[in-house]
Amino acid sequence: MTDLISTDSAFSPEEKRALETLAGQMIPATDSQPGADDPSILSVVFERLAPHQAMVQQALAGFAGDVGALRVSKPAFIGAFQFAVVTAYYADERVKAAIGLKPEPPHPGGWQVPETDWDNLLENVRARGKVYRDA
How far apart are alpha carbons 9 and 4 in whole angstroms? Predict the structure, then answer.
């Protein structure tokens, strides 16, 4: 758990601007969908990156806008950043609606899953016989 409280900010305004720029380049806005640099999506990204504050600050310390160089020199940061952006972006209700998904979670009681015939699926396993020894 992080030592930050909700009113604290893990990142400086300059770091937030750099992260906003990177997020906007990663998933730009369209007419029907917000970009990853949308303020409500970014707030979730900042929250998810807060536990990795030192890594983010170190990666952004020498960042001059060259994403290619950042990918090569800081792959751990890029991986954590991409994961934070994608999970925050596709959890946003506006994005879910734009791509045709229901805004509610898939469980409990969200999506209907067809019944599975377990007897049919397990037939080969049962036919194989006992593969263990008695204790």
Answer: 8
